Amino acid sequence: MAGTGLLAQRTLPGPSWVRGSSPSVLSRLRDAAVVRPGFLSVAEEETLSRELEPELRRRRYEYDHWDAAIHGFRETEKSRWSEASRAILQRVQAVAFGPGQTLLSSVHVLDLEARGYIKPHVDSVKFCGATIAGLSLLSPSVMRLVHTQEPGEWLELLLEPGSLYILRGSARYDFSHEILRDEESFFGERQIPRGRRISVICRSLPEGMGPGESGQPPGAC
C-alpha cells in the first residue's frame, strides 16, 4: 500500500505535504483534504501549547477509548480561550469553514503521547458536521486516508508542527483516517519520527443539531 509502488505526488512549491495512490485520488480530494503548512508562527504555537499544558497535565494518558479508535491519549473539550488563542481559532474558522457553517462551541483537544496513535476510523455524522480543521502542535505526524470500499485508493498528509489540516465531505465519510504510530510513520521513503503531538480541532455543527446542543463526546474526530 502506501510507501510502495508507483505513487502520484502533488507538485507544490518546495516540499510536498500531500501524496496519494493516483492522480485521480489527488484530484478528487484536492479541496476535501487540505494541508496548510506554516499556518501558525512559532509564537502562536507556543501560545496554544502554554494555554493547554496545565489542563492536560491534570489528566492521565489513556489506552482504552470509548470507540477503540485511539491509543495513548489525553483529551478535553475547551470552550474558554485567552484572547490570543481565540484570535488564532478565528483565523481557522475563516480559512476552513464556509459562511453558512456553524461551529460546535467547544474545541476538541487531543494529546497523543510519543507512542500513541489513532486507528483507522470514519467519523460519525451524529457528532461532527461536514468539516473538521485541526492545528498540529509539537511533533510532526502522518495522517493516512484510505477509501472504505477501495483500499487501494489512499492519500497521506504530512502534518508538521504549526500546520493546519482540513477534511471536508468525501474525505470525511468515504475515507477512513488515522495518525500513524511511530514505527509506521513514513511519508514516502522519508521517516517522520513521532513525538508527543497535540491537535486542536474545530468542527462544524452536525446537521439537525441546534447551537445549544452538545456535539461529539471527546474522540478521534
Description of the structure:
With 221 residues, the chain is α+β, with helices and mostly antiparallel strands. It has helices spanning 23-28, 42-57, 83-96, 170-173; strands at residues 8-9, 18-20, 33-36, 70-78, 107-121, 131-137, 141-147, 154-159, 164-168, 175-179, 186-187, 190-191, 197-203. A hairpin with a 6-residue loop joins strand 7 (141-147) and strand 8 (154-159).
Using the CA coordinates, give the radius of gyration: 16 Å
Low-confidence stretches are 1-15, 214-219
**CATH superfamily descriptor:** Alpha-ketoglutarate-dependent dioxygenase AlkB-like
CATH architectural name? Sandwich
Summed up, the domain count is: 1
Would you kindly provide a brief summary of this structure?
The chain is an alpha+beta fold. The chain is built from 4 helices and 13 strands. The chain has a single domain, classed as Jelly Rolls (Sandwich), CATH 2.60.120.590.
Features:
single chain; 221 residues; alpha+beta; Jelly Rolls; eleven-stranded antiparallel β-sheet; two-stranded antiparallel sheet; 33% strand; disordered N terminus; disordered C terminus; AlkB-like; metal-binding
Please specify the SSE layout and strand pairing:
Layout: E1 8-9, E2 18-20, H1 23-28, E3 33-36, H2 42-57, E4 70-78, H3 83-96, E5 107-121, E6 131-137, E7 141-147, E8 154-159, E9 164-168, H4 170-173, E10 175-179, E11 186-187, E12 190-191, E13 197-203
Subcellular location: Mitochondrion matrix
Domain Alpha-ketoglutarate-dependent dioxygenase AlkB-like: 75-203
Organism: Callithrix jacchus
